[in-house]
Design a protein that fits this description.
Keywords: Membrane, Transmembrane, Transmembrane helix. This protein is of the alpha+beta class and about 160 residues long. About 20% of the residues lie in helices and about 35% in strands.
Length: about 160
């Protein structure tokens, strides 16, 4: 009798364990994408669907596909992926308070202009700054001068 009860209880527990393993493995793969960087994002001005005006609790992963910022965020069970078309860098890296962007070591913030005109602020670790600014050139970044991405040439098409 006890074996029948354990069998019926054990099968659902194994399914839960397998599902949890699959979810965590998928999250691990996203964190190790080539060119990926840990970040938090918020909207400073304007509106972008799916983004709020304060940084989220959970650190997401971002990576670039041309001038589109792909953001993977959420907890392992409710993972979300968002796409943000970025026009330009509005202001270069600036130090921010670590209490504002929790769980990021030595955070720096960069403000980007979204395709709809809204301003986004991305916070990442200082070590990930190069990956975050990758599509906007390899020049020296300062907090004083805004740097804009040149328009794409039509000769490439």
């Amino acid at each position: 009798m006890i074996w029948i009860i354990l069998t019926f209880l054990g099968i659902p527990l194994w399914f839960c364990a397998i599902a949890l393993g699959i979810l965590l493995r998928g999250r691990h793969r996203v964190k190790h994408l080539p060119g990926g960087f840990g970040c938090k994002v918020r909207v400073v001005s304007g509106q972008v669907p799916g983004l709020k005006s304060e940084f989220s609790r959970i650190t997401g992963v971002g990576h670039w596909i041309h001038a589109v910022l792909v953001l993977h965020g959420g907890n392992p069970f409710l993972a979300r992926t968002g796409l943000c078309g970025i026009q330009a860098v509005e202001s270069g890296p600036s130090d921010i308070d670590p209490a504002t962007a929790k769980r990021i070591d030595d955070p720096v913030a960069v403000r980007f202009r979204h395709d709809n005109g809204a301003t986004l602020e991305l916070a990442c670790a200082r070590d990930d700054l190069e990956a975050m600014l990758e599509p906007f050139g390899q020049q020296r970044w300062t907090a004083d001068a805004p740097v804009h991405r040149p328009p794409p040439s039509e000769a490439a098409s």
